[in-house]
Amino acid sequence: MATPDGLGRLTGPLGAGTGQRFPAILRQMSLVFDGLHKRFDRIQALDGLSLEIPQGHIYGFLGANGAGKTTTMRIALGVLRADSGTLTWGGVDHRRLRRATWGYLPEERGLYPKMTVLDQLVFFGRLHGLPKDEAARTAMAWLTRLRVPDFATRRAGELSKGNQQKVQFLAAVIHDPEILLLDEPFTGLDPVNVVLLRQAILELRARGKTIILSTHQMETVEAMCESIAIIDKGRTVIDGALRDVKRSTGRQSVILATEIGQSLTWTGELPGVRVIRPGIDRVELDLDPGTEPDAVLAAAMARNVPIRHFEVADPTLEQVFIELVGHPADTDSSLAPVPEATRDEPRTEDASVPESPAA
């Protein structure tokens, strides 16, 4: 069993590589979900879900609420049983794997509020087979690395939500699992602690851990994940390398920045162009397929706009998600028009004002 060094760094085999989906002989270790189905009464939670996640990857697992993400994780952990389909790790059925193969950070808090942090982490480590002394050493090493060694003697219920989240993360990794399932791991964290947790996750990835990251924070997925899957209604909508997924729609984005005081509202009037992130001196635009970025640049120059920055980029993951799951971007992701009856209605001089109720 791999153990942490004095700094809490975990040892383990390095894994890499992608590969074609469901090859007859797996060249690389991978986690394969093949045709998973799960129904709860009238609700079809999973409807033939299929994915392949290479070892040593951080894999973004994306979907709207109710898409089937949590159900998939619970099947992997053995909490639920699939109605049909298989889930294997390196060709071995997940039900035959050791419990310690998995580490799980749930979206909901799962700590004992009256128990000290150290006792709690030792308890979770022992549940996964660690000797008590080893669990204590590992817990203290991780608490030190996350810069909170003083939490060891404090009760979990005394900590803020963000600090409880850090402890919950440690409970998921203390036993050095091969596969980590992280469900909204950055919930409640301030920017400094987001950076600390990102560093910890990237370090685990560098040591060969396979990490499934389920989150609604698209920018985090773009920054950390090599491959992703978008699921909807229990089915895989698209999966693959992040760059390939972002380019799958054939759309482009333009980021345009100018001097402060220069209005950019005119960009929303250009044909084939939609404003997705307006700003005071900066705007991000989504271009329809066939609309050239040069058209935006030419329009800016025709208006004598002093251009400070002009960049052509792939669409954001948020844009791709909205397009692929079927939510019209022009209605769901922007403000609805102001109702006609409320637009700049002049007030008359004799407009009545409700009287205050009598004392």
Structure description:
β1 and β2 (43-54) form a beta hairpin. By secondary structure, this protein is of the alpha/beta class. Helix content is 27%, strand content 25%. The protein is built from ten helices and 14 strands. It has helices at residues 69-77, 117-127, 132-145, 161-173, 191-206, 218-224, 242-246, 293-302, 317-324, 329-332, and strands at 30-40, 43-54, 58-62, 84-89, 92-93, 102-105, 179-183, 210-214, 227-232, 235-241, 252-258, 273-277, 282-287, 307-313. The strands form three sheets. The protein has a six-stranded mixed β-sheet, with helices on both faces. Strands 2-1-4-5 form a four-stranded antiparallel β-sheet, with helices on one face. A four-stranded antiparallel β-sheet has the order 12-13-11-14, with helices on one face. The chain is globular. The model is unreliable at 1-27, 328-333 and 347-359 (pLDDT under 50). The termini are far apart.
Radius of gyration: 25 Å
Point out poorly predicted stretches: 1-27, 328-333, 347-359
Distance between the termini: 77 Å
The rough form would be described as globular
What portion of residues belong to β-strands? 15-25%
Count the DSSP helices: 10
Work out the number of β strands.
Answer: 14
Following the backbone from N to C, one meets helices and strands in this order, namely EEEHEEEHHHEHEHEEHEEEHEHH
Topology record:
Elements: E1 30-40, E2 43-54, E3 58-62, H1 69-77, E4 84-89, E5 92-93, E6 102-105, H2 117-127, H3 132-145, H4 161-173, E7 179-183, H5 191-206, E8 210-214, H6 218-224, E9 227-232, E10 235-241, H7 242-246, E11 252-258, E12 273-277, E13 282-287, H8 293-302, E14 307-313, H9 317-324, H10 329-332
Parallel strand pairs: 3-8, 3-9, 6-7, 7-8
Antiparallel strand pairs: 1-2, 1-4, 4-5, 9-10, 11-13, 11-14, 12-13
Helix pairs in contact: 2-3, 2-4
